[in-house]
Structure formats: C-alpha cells, structure tokens
Amino acid sequence: MAMFLEKVKTPGLAHLSWVIGDADQAAVIDPRRDIDVYLEIAKSQGARITHVIETHRNEDLVSGAPMLAERTGARVLHGPNADQEIRYAETVRESDCIELGNLVLKILETPGHTDDSISIAIHDENNPGDAVGVFTGDALFIGDVGRTDFYPDRAEEVAGKLFDSLNKLLALGDQAIIYPAHGAGSVCGSGMAEREFSTIGHERLHNSMLQIRDREEFIEAKLDEMHYQPPYFRRMERLNAEGGSRLPTPMGLTPLDPETLLARRDEGCDVIDIRSPESYAGAHVEGALSLPLGLITAYAGWLLDPDRSLVLVADDLDQAGEALVHFGRIGYDRVEGAYSGGMAAWAASGNAFDSVPLVDAGDVSQRVGESKDLWQLLDVRKKEEFDRTAIEGACHIYLGHLADRLDSLDRDKAFTVLCGSGMRAMVGASLLRRNGFDRVDVFLGSMGAWTNR
Amino acid sequence: MAMFLEKVKTPGLAHLSWVIGDADQAAVIDPRRDIDVYLEIAKSQGARITHVIETHRNEDLVSGAPMLAERTGARVLHGPNADQEIRYAETVRESDCIELGNLVLKILETPGHTDDSISIAIHDENNPGDAVGVFTGDALFIGDVGRTDFYPDRAEEVAGKLFDSLNKLLALGDQAIIYPAHGAGSVCGSGMAEREFSTIGHERLHNSMLQIRDREEFIEAKLDEMHYQPPYFRRMERLNAEGGSRLPTPMGLTPLDPETLLARRDEGCDVIDIRSPESYAGAHVEGALSLPLGLITAYAGWLLDPDRSLVLVADDLDQAGEALVHFGRIGYDRVEGAYSGGMAAWAASGNAFDSVPLVDAGDVSQRVGESKDLWQLLDVRKKEEFDRTAIEGACHIYLGHLADRLDSLDRDKAFTVLCGSGMRAMVGASLLRRNGFDRVDVFLGSMGAWTNR
Amino acid sequence: MAMFLEKVKTPGLAHLSWVIGDADQAAVIDPRRDIDVYLEIAKSQGARITHVIETHRNEDLVSGAPMLAERTGARVLHGPNADQEIRYAETVRESDCIELGNLVLKILETPGHTDDSISIAIHDENNPGDAVGVFTGDALFIGDVGRTDFYPDRAEEVAGKLFDSLNKLLALGDQAIIYPAHGAGSVCGSGMAEREFSTIGHERLHNSMLQIRDREEFIEAKLDEMHYQPPYFRRMERLNAEGGSRLPTPMGLTPLDPETLLARRDEGCDVIDIRSPESYAGAHVEGALSLPLGLITAYAGWLLDPDRSLVLVADDLDQAGEALVHFGRIGYDRVEGAYSGGMAAWAASGNAFDSVPLVDAGDVSQRVGESKDLWQLLDVRKKEEFDRTAIEGACHIYLGHLADRLDSLDRDKAFTVLCGSGMRAMVGASLLRRNGFDRVDVFLGSMGAWTNR
Amino acid sequence: MAMFLEKVKTPGLAHLSWVIGDADQAAVIDPRRDIDVYLEIAKSQGARITHVIETHRNEDLVSGAPMLAERTGARVLHGPNADQEIRYAETVRESDCIELGNLVLKILETPGHTDDSISIAIHDENNPGDAVGVFTGDALFIGDVGRTDFYPDRAEEVAGKLFDSLNKLLALGDQAIIYPAHGAGSVCGSGMAEREFSTIGHERLHNSMLQIRDREEFIEAKLDEMHYQPPYFRRMERLNAEGGSRLPTPMGLTPLDPETLLARRDEGCDVIDIRSPESYAGAHVEGALSLPLGLITAYAGWLLDPDRSLVLVADDLDQAGEALVHFGRIGYDRVEGAYSGGMAAWAASGNAFDSVPLVDAGDVSQRVGESKDLWQLLDVRKKEEFDRTAIEGACHIYLGHLADRLDSLDRDKAFTVLCGSGMRAMVGASLLRRNGFDRVDVFLGSMGAWTNR
User: Fold this and answer.
1) Which end of chain A is more exposed for a tag (fewer CB within 10 A), N or C?
2) Is residue B7 less than 8 Å (CB to CB) from chain C?
3) Which of C36, C48, C317 sits opposite A254 (nearest CB)?
4) Chains with at least 3 CB pairs less than 8 angstroms from chain B
5) Alpha carbons C27 and C77: distance in angstroms, whole number
6) How many CB pairs under 8 A join B and C?
C-alpha cells in the first residue's frame, strides 16, 4: 500500500482540501461540508480516516470536520488561539506530531491570515529530516500569500505575523512541495497562479510577495491590499465554531411544476435561475434572480438572505442538485425545489415569461458616444478589474454591493450592464429588474468582447 | 435465477426493445445501435445473449442486431419476405421456436406494417398452453396498430394483411401481455397510448382500431390515415439490410474552441445548436440551426444532409455526447466536435452572436388583428395537430417540409413561427434565418399558451 | 411524458416494489428501507412522489414508507384493520381512489394473508372501465397465493378470507396484469413461479391454488401448508407499526485491520464472514459465522441476536457495504466495520485462521455405507426439500432451527453437512464449529452433486 | 481554467501516467492501453488532447499512444535513438518545446534506462526560468533510479549514460517536483519509495543512488543490481514499435456455464482462476492455474503463452472484466469468457473440484525439524527477498522461473510452497499441481506469519 496524497478541489470556492495517508490510516485536511468524496478516497485506499485537521477557521465555507468526525470517529485537530472555541476540535500546537504509518505530520503555527492558522509539514519516516511537503492553509498560496484583513484593528500586527509565518515556511527548504487551501479564483487571495502545483523553492523564486524581504515593506504591501468581504463570512465563522450540520441531500430535491413554483414565489420564496445567462436572457420566470450555477458560491453570500427559502429554475434536476450542494457549502440550506421543464413548456402552460435584451460591442460603442442623460453603462466587476481597464463613461458598482447601492442609480435611465463576459452582468441586470428598473440590457461578451472587438 | 424481461426505451424515437431470458440465456428483441445497455442487462442477470430477433426491418433507426451478434456470437433471426436480403440474419417462419431455459419464444408471421413483420409469443414451459405475452413489433401498439403506408402500390393488400395479423394476435387470448416496438410519440403510429403496459385483453376492449371488426372497413380506415415519411427512412432500410457499423464513441468527441468551430463552419460543416430554444433565442452562433437534443431523432432525418459533417453547440460535453448517440441512432455519424463554453465566453472572445426575439400570447393576439400584408403567423406542427385547432390566419407548413417550401413564403414579410410549445417553432425559425429571412420571431408557449391564455 | 410503471426488485427477500406515475406525480407501492432507488426513478421521470401505499404490514422487511414520506412529503396509505396502529399512515378502504394524472389507483380490500391486506387496481382514465393491472401485495403471486399462517387461532377464518379476496381479484378480468409484492424465492409463498410477469387471465388458467374452486377445499389446502416463521418477523411487525429509522449509510462503514477486528470480537461482537462458502472453507477467522451475502436476509433473522454488534469479513468494502444494506433491510443496524484484506494478509500479520474440509459425492457415497456410530450426514434444507428427496441415513434439521437443536446432536460424531449446493451447509457447519463440534466438513455440491453424480 | 496535472495510476504494473494541460489543451505522458481515463480527465477539464508523449519505449506494458492519437488526432512524440522505428510517433530531441497555453514542456534527453529515454521539464510562462516540475520517465524514480540491464552488451556504457542523465535532472534545481513513470511495486526498479510525491531537492537529499557522486562507483553499483526480465518484455518492445491495437472491451466478455468452461478447457484453453488464494484453496476447477487479479500483470508474462486462449474463473463478471483489462495491458488479448457462478453451484452441477490444503506457522515449524527426504519447503519469492530472510532448509525458485525448473524438483516429495503472504505461493502450488505434483500445500501467511509467529 503506497502512501497517498489526493487533492479534492471545490470549484467556485477554489477551495482545496487534501487526503493523506499511509498504512490503512488517513487524515483529511480542511474538509468541505459534502464529505462523501473523502470517504470514497479513503475506501479506495483501504484506509480509515483517523484525523481531520483544519488549517484555520474557515470563513468562506461550512467546514465538514464535525460531520466527518461523526461519521468516522476521527479526531478533529485545530490550531490554537481561535477567536471562538471550536467545539468539535482538539487544539494542536507547534511541533505536535500526528503519525500515519510512516508519515509524520508536524504542526507549524503560522498565524497572520487568522490567529489560529497552522501549517502542517509532511515527513516520511523512511527519509527522516527534511519535509517532503507542507499543507500551507491560507498562509501561503501558489503565487500569493493569505489575506490579512480580518482583524481591522490589528492590521499591522497580523500582517507582520504572516511575514514571520512565511519565513517559517521558507525554512522548510526548497524541496518541500506546497499544498495550500485555495487555488486560483478564490476570494482568499487575488494573485494566485493558475497552476496548482509548486514547491517552497519555486515560490521562493517566483511568488511576488515572497520577494519582499523587509518586514515593514511587507506589512505596508498587505495594508495596501483591498479585499471584498461578503456578509456571510461572519455567519460562517460562528457556524464553524459551533459545528455545522449535515448537508441536505440532493436526492430529495422536489421537482416543481410551474404552478407550485409560482405558489412558492408568492409565499415569499426567492426564485433563483441557475441556468446560463443566455438562457435567462432568452426567457425566464418573472421576478427570478439570475445566479448561474458557477457563481452561486461567489455571490449568494452577497445577494441572498439565508433565512429565506429558495426555489430554483434549472436546466435539469441534476443541475439543481448540484446547486443545492453549492448553496449548502456556504450554509444556504433552504432550497425547496426546482422547476426544470424548460421555458417552452412553462409558457405553454399559460405562464408569463420575461426576457433581457443582449447587446454587443458594436451596439455599445455606438451608444458610448450618445448622450449620458438617458443611458448608463454599469460595470459590476471587482474594483481591481475596473481599475485595470474600463470603458469610457462606465460607472462602477461591484456586483456584491449593487443591492445596497440601487438608490444611487437614476431609474429613468436605460442601463447596459457589463462585467468580464456577461455572466455577472446578467446577475446584476436581474437584480435591477427585480427592483423595478425597466430598461436594462446586458453587454454579452462585455470587456472580453470590448477588448477583442 | 428468475426469468427476466426488461424494457429498454429510447426516447425521441419512442422505440422499445426488450431483453428476455431464463437460465443463463437471453434474447434481445429489436436492439438499437448503441448496444451496451443490452450487454449490461445480460451481465446483471448472469446471462449470455444467444439470440437477437428483429420483428421487422427497421426504417426509423439503425438496427443494433449485427453489432450485438458480432460482440456476443448470438444468432440474428428475422422474418421471411424481407424486401432485401438481411445479410446478417437467418430467416424464421411461422411456428419456429426458440428455447431459453424454460421459456419458449414462438414466431407468428404478422405482415402488414412490412412484409417481413413477425410477432413473438412467449410461452413458459412450466405452464404450457396459453401465451404469457407477445412481442408485437410494429403490428400492434398500445392504443394503435402499425402504419401500412410503406407500399403505396399495395396499400389495400397490406392493410388487409395487417387486419389478419391482428386477428392472429387476438387469438392468443386476453391474458397475453403485449410488448410492442414503439410507445407514445413514435412516428410509427399516431394514436398510441401514454401507457406502456397492456394486454391483448385490454387492447381488445379499448384499442379503437381493434373495435373495427370488418376487414373492408379496417382497410378503408388505414387508407384514410396520413403519415409523414422522413427521407432518411429509405436510407435506413438499405443500411439495415446490409448491417450498420458500430456507433462512434461519445468519449472521443472533440471539444472545440470558438475559433475551431468557426473554421469548421467555414469549411462547410453544419453548425447544430442542441441547447434549449430559450438558450438559442438568447444568443447563438450565427448560422447555427436550432435542433434541441430531444428533437434530433425526429427532425435530423428531415433537415440534415447525411453526407455533411456536423459541429455542435451544446450546454456541456455530456449533452454533446448524448447528441452524438442520438444522431448515430439514425445513421448520422459525422459529428466532428462540440463547443460548450457558453455564449458569454463565446462573445468575450470577440465572436459575433445572434438572437431570436420571443413573443407571447398577448403579442400574437394583438397582431392577429393587424394587416396580413406585413406579418405572417407560420405553424410548423403536424397537419393533424393543425387540423385539430389552430390560430386564425396562421399558415401551415410541417417542419419536416419547411426547407422545401421556403419559396412559397414572402421574404418581405415578418414571420412569427409557432408549434405546440415553441421547440419546433425555434427549429423552423432558425431555418428561416439561415435562409435569409430577416424578421423572424418565435411564439414561446405557442398553441399551449394560446389555449391557456 | 408517458405513464410509467417500474419494478424494484430486492434479491434475497425476493421483494418487489413498484413505482407508478403519470403527469409529474408518482406513487410507490411497498417501498423497502433503502429508498434512494425510488427517488432516482421519480427523478428520471421528472415526477414527484406524492403517495406511498403499503399493501399490508410487512413482516419480513423494514418498510421504507415513513422514510420516503419524510423525504418527499408524500402521504402514506395503508389498509384498514391493522393489528396495531400504523403511526405514519392514513387508512384507506374499499373503493378509495388515488389519482395520478390520468391514472386512477383503486383500493380493493383483500384480507387473508393479513387483516389489513389491500390490492390496488390500476385504471387509465383514457380507457375507463376495466383495470389495466393490479398490485396484488401478498394476496396473489405468480404461481401461488399468500400464506395464511400468521393468525394460528383463526387459521380457517383467514384462509377463507383469502379465498374471497382472490375471487375479488379474478373479477377484475383476464386482461389485468398482476404486480405482486414478492417473486420466486420469497418465504412469503412456496410455489411462486420463476417468471415475474403474468396476468389475472394467465393465473386463472395456471396458478394451481386458483384451480381450487371450492372454498372449503381451499381452506383445507391452506391449513395443510407448512411455512417457516423466523423469529425476527415479530420484531418487524412492531417496528413497521411504529415506523423504522433511516438506513445507516454504507459509505461510513469502517475498514478494520486484523487487530481491530479481533479486539471487537473479544468485546463480544459477532464475526460474520459474508464471503463465498469456498473462501470460508479455504481459510477464515476463528469463530466467524459463515453467512454469504446472498443468504443474509434469509438467515440472519434466524441466527443473529439483533442486539449484538456485528463485524464483517468480506472480499472487499463494496461487498461489506452491500451486506450492511442487506442487514439493514431486515432491521440489523449494528454493523461496526469490516475486514477485507484477504486471509493471506490476515495470516501474514501473524493471526490464526481456520479451514473447513470439503467433501464430494464420491466421499459421501463411500461413507454412507460406513458405520453410523462415528459419522452423521446432516441435511439443513427446508423440510419440503428434504421430503422430496434425500440421501439415505441423513438426519434433517432445518438451518433456521439448528442453533436450538444442537443438543440433539452427538458431539462425539463427525458430521458432514449438506443442503442443495453447499451454501447453507457451510452456514450450518460454521455454527457447529462455533459451538464446539470439532469434526465437521461440508458436502460441496450437496444434493445437486448427489443427483448429478 | 486552471493549469491541471493529474496522475493516472495503474496498480499491478505500478505504472504512472500523467495528464497535464492549460487553456483547453492537454498532453498525456506515457498512456497505458485502456485510454478512456485520459479522455475522461480531458473532458472534465474541457480540454482537447493535442499531444501524447512517451518518455521511452515501454517494455512492461502496451502503450496507449497510438490508440489515443487515433481517437483524438493528437501528435505522438517519442525520444531519439529508439531501437526500432516507432511507427506512430514523431521524434523529439533535446530542448524541443511543446506549448500548452502558458505551460511549456521542454524535452531533456536522458538515456540510460533505454537509449530513447527522455525527461520533460515543466515550465510556466507566467514564471519563466526554473522548471516547476519534470516528468522523469524511467530515469529517476522516487527513492530509486531506472534499471540499466536491457543492453547486456553495453552494460557499463548505459549505466554511465544514466549517471549523466541524472545529473542533468539534478541541474533543474531542488524546487522541481518529479513525476516518474513508475511507483513502488514496479519491476522497473527495486528500491522505490512507498511515497508518490517528491522533488529533485528531496531526492538529491535522500535517494540512495543519488548519494553516489562518483561515476565509476555508480556504474559499479548498477552492474551489481539483479533484475528479473519476464519473457513478454521482448514482445512488448516489438509491439510498441509497431503500435498495439485497441483493448478488447470487458463489456462483451462471455459468461460461461460450467459445461462450456470445461469444453473450452478440453479444447486447449488455459483455465485461470483469478479469485483469492483462499478461495482457490477451498475449491477450484481441476487444472486451473491460480493467478489472483492483483498478480496478473506481474506473472502472466512469465507463466502464460500469449498464443493460447484463456478462460477465467472469477468471483463475478466485474472482476473478470477487470482481469480482461489487466491481461490486455500486457498484451494478452485472448480471454474467451468467464465462469463466475461459485464453486458450490459448480459442484452442484455434478462437476469435480479440487482443493489445496493450507498450513500455518505451527505446522511448518514442526516439519522443519523433520526429515528432508519426504518434505520440501519451496520459497518462490524474488531472490532479493529470499536473501534478506528465509526459513532454514527452504529451497528457492523464483515464481517466474518455476515452470522451467520443475525438473529440478523431486516429484516423490511433499511440498509446502511459501512466499511473503501466500498469494504467490498459491500460484506456484497450482503450477506444481498442474504438472503432476500430488502432495502440495501452501503456507498461508508465509514469511509474514513466520516472522510474526
């Protein structure tokens, strides 16, 4: 039985978790809430999950640690100095070791991103000495380092701690492979590489934050960073101290016919359309919010009230089931059912539908020259994207902030919403429509099309 | 090991095939081209497929009999009097018996639908005497009987033969369960029940064609029927006499990026958009024909040249792989690849896209009163549907005939295309657009919405 | 959307359950405890499970009705006159109707097997009048009728009731297809056909019990029948009145290494070897009971104390997971883990193992002539099998009764255990070994080999 | 779309292949013959396989490169100086580069194991300069280096070349992750680590062969190594120059009943029992060779004539299908069918069976003291294992050589066969039995049990 180390990637959140083991024993690092994947990996290796280790308290997703412990009897280990007591975990500290066959996992306290952040060096007893690899949590990513904006009062202090933690990681040696908790696309960093394999050595040479060798300079750089913090983060932190519950099962998702969906909507459920932006543009249920499957984990936490029930409009029930899992990963459990019969059947049953016009680069470039009194280009990307390149005359409101900033917009104007490709723009457009903006269209292709026009 | 009898349903074609067996042996009745499903069933029963029986030469799909025989060594059995020699099959005749453990399959010649049509009575040696069930092929359906329009010169003769064949089936007794080759939705009959389980007894009481007890009256009723015959039927007949080849594997389907898809289009490939009509309405590749997945087997045979290569626009590669199978079932093997990245990414790469406006019942009822000179309502349903109920002023061209009838339409007019729900209408609309009609929209919901308005 | 009717077969218990539906609604008849299969079928049909119907209180398995109701919100319907209140169900009575689209399910009270037994006739509103089919529960099987030995005090009365119920079913007409709750191999009947499809008409002609047209004669025939009643039946009845709990998930089954398995054994867990009899014969854990996967549902209820925990020896974890489901279906939930590393690795870790010699027909025929003082042939089949044909000099103890009858056996003798093939014999042999019988072997091939020698 | 790099591990052969890609393009390194896994990975990443690279001509398995090229249109690249022309490949040389999005794969000629061996450095255009990783083929493993015994005439020369090649790899820098073509358990090296992740840095520090910094000393060490070379290696080399054919599909594997299996045996098929050694010990088909599933790729090449057909005895058809794939990976395509009904049913049909007695450490230690004239302990492990530790008085013949060395054994003696655990011993015992040795048993647990006794 070989030593094994497998990656479990959660797209959307760009979350990485890991299963490592030897000799019939396995440890899971930073499990997500839908834990069957870890059980499957352990089973295929003939191993028993004996340890679950959290590199830090998660703010962006529901931790699967308590569920995994309940299912397997594994011990949950968590770093020291957590903001709140982690009810389901034991505390581990610097130099604590966990043995799995001939593997030794050694705890390194690496605070900065959070006070309780740890890294976990991997040693092989057959070749004792240097670490083979290291789980770096949210301390060190490939191409970036952890964000340090979660303690606004202690901003300098925690940035400095991260600097020290990174030095501790560098001291492991160039040969150590790094296994971080996030990859490209995560909100937990902004400069992460597209590449998901690297070593301390490669990062030492190429990670731009590791090129800053002066502590003060590093702190300054961190303080200059700007990160979005969706409102659900606070809820996740509390929930992950208490320990979340098992994910509702997609198998039980109720198929809804048009009448039932409308009845639920009228009872106060949010109607969420998880189909592609072009499907939504073509035809959608009146009042539905566009939130394509791939954007759920990134934007539900900004746009949706966790206490309201959701009903979905989906291409099919499998897609709706996937959405239920995505919602569940960030703590939205109240998915009541899904309509997936298509908008042709929807309309054929006598139900009303709505459309959103799409415009292209030609249309936009024509209007850009027109009067600003009647028409407004609205860019909903992140500020850093907007700052890098934007269309003249466009106003910027980040999609996550749009709901709170509607009053700043003139309802008498027509709006063309844009983003990078049109996906987020459609979410923004649907939000405007739900709030009574009548003349809204979307620039399909958005900045991509604009640049390539 | 119990005797088993399992149904394999092929949606779209509404084709039913069957696996029956006992004591480690199995027979497959009327296999389709993608045969793994039969092998799976046999494996799960621990049985070896020893016989493949065709109830008639298939005109609407590629027979899987030769592939199944090649893979398993099974004998292929086919009725007598085929129009062409069936190269891969042995001929069976009235009263021939096939034994599978304690099951006996007994051949009944039941011509009419085709000259070579047979039915297969199922007897259980443990209870000899009356048939337990009967595979009725295209002779007797649940709620209907087989069409008899394939020999225009001998229309009366073959309708009379079918009458006699049905009497032979009725003579099996009320207790016999029937297992036909098609269910509701097939083009091989028009009055088939939504229900897929019945007996000779229940059909004797309720099948309207079986209520006609006079031979001449029956012949007259059959001659009065109107059936569409897509052009690919002739090709299928020839191919199924020779024996088709194995289905191309969906696994090898090439993902295309936008540039490659466009290059293929410019080299002469047909671009087929298999997504939902609302997705196509929202945004689609210029020049693409709308043909939603569920309509492929019904309309590709009308609309596409089997000698041209196809490239697909799909929601994802799984859907494209499914489409490849659907195309393959009716002998369209030249699917070269698929773009499935979404229209937002498509446009973001700087590529042009097109949309089709959707209108609703309110829009249509407003226009119905307007001048006919500028605007035409075009109904593409089957004639029998149109005859049952239609919107005043609509002109009717069956979707299968539309390509040949474009010259009868006034290109200066605007067109609103409709069908039952909007699915087929979108196919028709895309056909008009590809042929230079500029002002085309689709009535989403179509007759369903009109009736429920 | 066609009307659908799908069979779910549970091997071992030979239990049949059914999903029937139309127009987005589905009903499940007699669900088992592992209910995902019903949810999958409903999903694939795009239907919502709105009704769960029990044809009678189950005595041989845990009903899945309450779990399915909890997951889907469906109503549970149960016949009148149950021995105990069915807590999770509403009572339905003669002629009550349930509508699912154009399908109508009509209740027929058919007591006899139990007082609360109902049958459910299937009508199609498109062809009103005669039933298309009927769910017959444990009243009428294919080739047999329900057992009536559950009320020993009222034996004649309930046999007579069954006679009347069967007449009610016959009155539905020959055309009605029958869908019973059990197939061949079930302990709920003994003459069931290997065939799983039939009609009222075919049964009227061929079911031997339906050939008895005199009520008194029928009652007499029923009173003459002999049925085994495993002790867990009583527990199932109580549990199914209360409503059982969800099945433990096979995913969480703990892999055990040899040391842990032995530790559990020493703590009092039963070690159950679910591998083939030849694997057990070759090498097994000392003290393990042989209970091959396929025999669990038939014999665990006889041999195992539901209050003791179990640890399994399996070929692999998938097989152990299957066993967990089989145990769960009959209410044995305490499966603590499984060893699946093979006996070579087991022994290589320094652990002891045991073997059981296998003998063949030659060996047995040689010994049959030998002195009876030293050697005893022990046949553990059902009495009806033994009565039909047996080896001279063999003594008979039914496997289910063996544990209680050990004292009747002379421990100084050598024993050769036999059954039909050697499967049940190995279970019996392992039971003898666990109880201190030293010289036990098994006749592999058993009566099959004897007959074919 | 992140850059991806996924491992595909083939147990048994301990073969590692890799899929690496970026921006819709993927390359596969050293594909095995069953290629669907690569297509699945590419599909899940939305990428098109454009390149297949072989690090050397494979001698231990059938290369999947030509099949993958045929299915995808990918180019196949192979190093220079192959012994025979590789018909399906283009030659690449030092410093050639392949671009996949922002990834650059750079060829390093690293001969030694074979003349055509290459390694492939992975560079990320976003961080140009140092390699992120390197595919090392059979040049450098984790914990070992490639064997250099394939050119006996040029033994020193090629060992020296490997030394130089390893230096070239070390020059890539400590930060480079290594991705070799084999892991622990492969016959292509003997000291490989159980761990499957490492870097140039870690190997530089811990790989014992890399500690030898003197070229002559390294050559000497390589010349001292002893490797087994199964006879099928020569066939693989030729076949992999020509290009093998597609793997037969497990789906079509014919289930055999006992009679058919025996008929095939009598026609000259080899009967191969792929079940566990304890199942074989319990009962097996007379004349069957024991070759448990997990040993097929390691020993079929020694024991089986590739021109003879095989029939299998398996636990179930899935296991037989797996075996078909294992056989196919090393070029044994003639698997004609499988019996999987169990030995109880086998014997119950009146067929003879055989058993192999198992003995334990107690039995063996008792006999060790006994006379050597009647009984012989036979150890079939590799010589290096035997040399490390053995039981006094045991004679050693490597399992791969046993068939050729039967004449050296005294047929009048009894034999107890042993290995590490009993698996290989059972293969050896079955070989003896097939060759007329009457008194053969197996030490279950073998050296493991002996050491732990």
Assistant:
1) C
2) no
3) C48
4) A, C, D
5) 10
6) 117
What are the pLDDT digits (tens) for C89-120? 999 999 999 999 999 999 999 999 999 999 99
Average pLDDT over residues D233-240: 93
CA distance, residue A27 to nearest chain D CA (Å): 15
Residue D52: DSSP 8-state: E
In the block, residue with structure tokens 């088993």: B4
Question: CA-CA distance, D112 to D147, in Å (whole number)?
Answer: 8
| Diameter of chain B measured on Cα atoms | 73
As a whole number of angstroms, the distance between CA C86 and CA C76 comes to 10
Quick check: D344 and C281 CB within 8 A?
no
**Using CA atoms, how far apart are residues D323 and D111, in angstroms rounded to an integer?**
34
Q: In the complex, which subunits touch D with 3 or more CB pairs below 8 angstroms?
A: A, B, C
CA-based diameter of chain C, in Å? 73
- Give the C-alpha separation, C271 to C253, whole Å: 15
What letter would DSSP give residue C314? -
Cβ of D444 within 8 Å of Cβ of C350? The answer is no
Tell me the mean pLDDT in the region C267-284.
Answer: 97
| Model ipTM value | 0.94
Mutate to test the interface with B, among C127, C141, C169, C421 (most CBs of B within 10 A): C127
Question: What number of other Cβ atoms are within 10 A of residue D126's Cβ?
Answer: 13
A195 near D CB under 8 A: yes
Residues D154 and D157: their CA atoms lie apart, in Å, by 5
Q: Alpha helices of C112-256 — where are they, by DSSP H?
A: 155-170, 200-206, 215-224, 232-242
Place of tokens 């012989």: D376
Q: Within an 8 Å CB–CB cutoff, is residue A363 touching chain B?
A: no
Question: Tokens at residue A185, please?
Answer: 């696309």
Q: If you average pLDDT over residues D247-263, what whole number do you get?
A: 89
Question: Residue B86 in contact with residue B168, Cβ under 8 Å?
Answer: no
- Chain D: closest CA distance from residue A331 (Å): 26
Mapped onto helix, strand or coil, the DSSP state of residue C356 is coil
Query: How far is residue C375 from each of residues C404, C417, D445, measured CA to CA in Å?
Result: 21, 11, 32
CA proximity to B78, closest of B104, B96, B60: B96
Q: Which residues contact D216 (CB under 8 A, 6 or more apart)?
A: none
3-state DSSP of D174-213: CCCEEEECECCCCCCCCCCCCCCCEEHHHHHHHCHHHHCC
Q: How confident is the model at residue B189 (pLDDT cuts 50, 70, 90)?
A: confident
Over residues C373-423, the pLDDT tens digits come to: 899 999 999 999 999 999 999 999 999 999 999 999 999 999 999 999 999
User: Is the Cα dihedral C62, C64, C70, C74 positive or negative?
Assistant: negative
CA distances from A363 to A88, A366, B440 (A): 56, 5, 20
Residue D252 with chain B: CB contacts under 8 Å: 39, 71-72
Q: Is D132 in contact with A193 (Cβ distance < 8 A)?
A: no
pLDDT digits (tens, 9 = 90+) for D152-200: 999 999 999 999 999 999 999 999 999 999 998 887 777 788 899 999 9
- Nearest Cα residue in chain B from D43: B317
- Other beta carbons within 10 Å of B287: 15
3-state secondary structure D223-273: HHCCCCCCCHHHHHHHHHHHCCCCCCCHHHCCECCHHHHHHHHHCCCEEEE
Q: Read out DSSP for C173-184? A: -TT-EEEESB-T
Nearest CA in chain A to B442: A344
Work out whether the CA dihedral D441, D444, D448, D449 comes out positive or negative.
negative
| Rounded Cα–Cα distance for residues C90 and C110 (Å) | 17
Residue of B nearest to D251 (CA): B39
Average pLDDT over residues A76-92: 94
- Report the greatest alpha carbon distance in chain A: 73
